[in-house]
Design goal:
Elements: H1 2-10, H2 46-63, H3 66-70, E1 72-78, E2 82-88, E3 94-100, E4 106-111, E5 121-126, E6 131-133, E7 138-143, E8 147-152
Antiparallel strand pairs: 1-2, 2-3, 3-8, 4-7, 5-6, 5-8
Helix pairs in contact: 1-2
Length: about 150
């Protein structure tokens, strides 16, 4: 869940802000315990290490994609559990971000305004478990519970 919130943060227009320790899920409370001492390898728990790897993957995708850094955001789908939007930097530099925060799998056909992506394979630049193809102006999207992807041609 934390990696999904950081995915959202790192794929919004503008400069993202990650507070000290968020990248490892560092605990804290109200002042003066707002943040504890930072942990580093090899002192990270398994969950902290996994979260750090996911945040690094998202950060690397952002660094390599003009669309993820400066693209125009277009809302494609939103409901209580599913959020899908695209970021378009022009010239075919497009990223599609999709996240399912629901407790069950989701399967939707997401209408896309990006005609240039018709029949172009989209691969996961974050969570690259599979690929998708747009047909008839729609992206057939299937996500497991608490799964997210960032897709790019």
């Amino acid at each position: 869940r934390m990696s999904m919130s950081l995915l959202f943060t790192l794929t919004q227009p503008g400069v993202p802000l990650i507070y000290y320790g968020d990248e490892i899920g560092l605990g804290g409370d109200g002042d003066p315990d707002n943040r504890r001492m930072m942990n580093f390898e090899p002192y990270l728990s398994a969950n902290q290490g996994t979260l750090l790897e996911r945040v690094q993957e998202i950060g690397q995708a952002r660094a390599s994609s003009q669309a993820l850094r400066r693209g125009t955001r277009i809302q494609l789908w939103v409901d209580d559990d599913l959020l899908v939007y695209s970021l378009d930097a022009g010239g075919g530099d497009i990223a599609i971000v999709a996240m399912n925060k629901g407790e069950s799998a989701r399967s939707e056909s997401i209408p896309l305004p990006h005609g240039e992506l018709e029949n172009v394979p989209l691969v996961g630049v974050v969570n690259p478990s599979r690929s998708w193809t747009i047909h008839d102006g729609s992206l057939p999207l299937e996500l497991n519970p608490w799964e997210y992807v960032v897709l790019s041609p």
